[in-house]
C-alpha cells in the first residue's frame, strides 16, 4: 500500500514532466510526422491522464478523465471532418500502449511495486486507453454520418431544381437515382415552392433518371397529381419505356398525362 501511494504521489507531482517524456517516446515509435499542435495537446492530455491515474490507483476501476474523453472525441471528429480514415488514429494506439507499459514497468521497478500492484496499474492504463479508442471511433462515426447527411441534403437540393424557362413556365429536371429520400424532399421542399414562383405550366423531365423502382414511381406520379390539384398544368418528358412499365404496374393511368419525347418538343407544343 505504501509503495503504491508513493507512486501515486510521484505521478501527480511530476505529471507534466513525465507526459513530455511519454509523448516523446511515443512519437519516436511512429513512422510519420506529428504536428506541433498535436504534440502539445497530447502532452496536456497525458499529464491529466497521469494525474488521474495517480488518484485512481487505490480507487475502484472504471472512471476516465474528462479531458481524455474530450480529446478522444475531438480527434475522431477532426479526422472525419478532414475526410481521413479512422485507421490514421488507431494505428497510433499499439505504440502508445507499449510506451505506457514500459513506463509503468520502469516506475514499478524503481519504487519496488509488487506484481499485483503492477498488474493493477497496467489494467487502469489499458482501460483508459480502451475507452479513449471507443470514444474516438464513436465520435468519428457520428461526425461522418453528419457530414454524409449534409452532403446528401446538398445533393438533393442540387439535383431537384425548378428552372424557370419563361413567364409561367418552368422545368423540373429529375436527375440521378430517385429513392424514398429524394421523393420526400420533392414533396416537402420542392412542391411548396412551385406556386410561389407563379408557375402555370411545369415540365417534369425524367430523361436524367438513372434508376427508379415501382414504389418510387408511384410517389413521383402522386407529385404529378398534387401539382394538378394546385392548378398547375404538368407535362412529362423523357419517360423511358422501363419507367413507363413501372408506372403502369402501379396502376397509373397515362391517358390524362401529356407526355413528350424531350423538353424541346414540350415547349414547342406549348407555344403553338
Please describe what this structure looks like.
The protein is an alpha/beta fold. It folds into two domains: 2-152, Globin-like, CATH 1.10.490; 160-270, STAS domain (Transcription Regulator spoIIAA, 2-Layer Sandwich). The chain is 65% helix and 12% strand. It contains eleven helices and five strands. It has helices spanning 2-13, 15-29, 36-56, 66-81, 87-90, 93-111, 115-159, 180-190, 214-229, 241-249, 263-270, and strands spanning 163-166, 169-177, 201-211, 233-237, 258-260. A five-stranded mixed β-sheet has the order 1-2-3-4-5. β3 (201-211), α9 (214-229) and β4 (233-237) form a beta-alpha-beta unit. α1 (2-13) runs antiparallel to α3. The longest helix is centred in the middle third of the chain and has 45 residues, at 115-159. The model has no long low-confidence stretch (mean pLDDT 83).
Concise synopsis of the structure shown:
With 272 residues, this protein is an alpha/beta fold. Helix content is 65%, strand content 12%. It is rod-shaped, with a radius of gyration of 31 Å.
